[in-house]
Amino acid sequence: MWRGNLVERVENELPTFNRQKGNTNLVGKFTQSVRRIVQDVKDEGAASGMSREEVIATNERLRAVRLRLEDSYDTAKQALVTLMNKYGDSKTHRNIFNRYPLLKVMIKEVIRLETQYWTLVDIPKQEKQETVPAYVMRACAIMEKTQKSGEGVKTSAKLAEEAAERRERLDRLESMTTALIEQENTQMINDLYRLLKKYSGLRNLIRELKSEYGNSKLYPIFPRYTMLKDMIKDIMHDPDYMEVCHEVDN
Length: 250
Prior knowledge:
With 250 residues, this protein is an all-alpha fold. Helix 3 packs across helix 5 (132-145). 75% of the residues lie in helices and 0% in strands.
């Protein structure tokens, strides 16, 4: 759309261009006119009413939070997939006294993520009347306030690398119109929303596993052995786990 507007505005400049044929700086002036028009198109406000600077800042926020969330999501997913694989391997032990300690260890490895506050990020629940963009941006604000372990200490090489990557991103955005950047933001918001929902499902499974495992400590070995198996099987057949367990990691 903006390209069509640009062509139309350039064509409107052509009469002026034709009247200036005797000017030796004709080409330079026409080039300046085109550049001015392009800049005007870039600076046109977004449909949301946000300024260009605000739209770019939102793009940066969404990108940073997505990377953070993807890391926690992959951690949670991998922990549960590993749990299922180890559970399958444990079936080779037919003796309950051999398999029972294996079940305890494999569950502990998962619920340990809940005790390491920096491993998994916390995200809020979506309110009933809350729109997708409002919820995503609220989740972003909360995640931005929590610092992941190791983020406070970065080498000069890492800082230089991040600065170079940011310049590259900003250069790319600079070549885009405000409307196009906002379209990209909308797509990122939708992608983040789906990721938030999948991550929340896995996080809840881990929380429930931790609670049930703690409660099972009140029981002797034989009933508890059955309880541990059921805990793992419940996750295995849970829709939130089944939705993501077959994802192919790139």
